[in-house]
Amino acid sequence: MARAVTPRRKAITTAAAWTIGLLLFFPILWTILTSFKTEAEAIASPPSFVFFDWTLENYGVVQDRSGYMKFLWNSIIIAGGSTLLGIIVAVPAAWSMAFVPSARTKDILLWMLSTKMLPAVGVLYPISLVFIKLGILDTRIGLVIVLMLINLPIIVWMLYTYFREIPSEILEAARMDGASLREEIFHVLTPMAVPGIASTLLLNFILAWNEAFWTLNLTAANAAPLTSFIASYSSPEGLFFAKLSAASTMAIAPILILGWFSQKQLVRGLTFGAVK
Asked: What is the pLDDT of residue 236?
């Protein structure tokens, strides 16, 4: 039997959850508030939380100086392209490891995961030379490829975990009905793993969106995403905190909107499934 939860315990748990959530969200909230301050108010001590002269000047300066839409479009193409390309490569790989394992499958999975432990700076120079030789330095396609390869172990591991939860008998039944390998993967396996694929897509899109090391080192101007856009507000003269906060707010706004939309869709899907 389920253990009864007292109102007092429920209230304490709810308050603790809200407190932790607000503490985690506070840096983002402070960045958003700072973006509406002047540079003098942004560095004032003690800082003002709400009662200050609100201004939109920083957003106008950032837009006029940097061309926000160009960086935003680059981020969308790079993050979306690397995520979709990773899914295309990872779905057959995870399928083979989950349903046709070999004696080396676990070793391969561990080796793939171990590549994430390699410091990125250790392979920066050879990758830069390869990009220069191929002529894809400071291009979107170059960043799409390198970010896909970086996040591929995570994509394969996540999809492998979800695929392992699907009974193999369902795929065997599809084979008995004459389904080819392609039909088995795309018409039987993939629809059953939609929740897992969706969560994998969202996580890896965020990872690619927030990637700074490779985007700062492999781009100059043409393919620079929002991470380069934010870094441009760090200068030898110092940090312009108000303008840097405005740039950061403009960079995180699409992710906040995407997270809110994804949460609404998830809640709607769970509610529909419960009613159904």
From this structure: 52
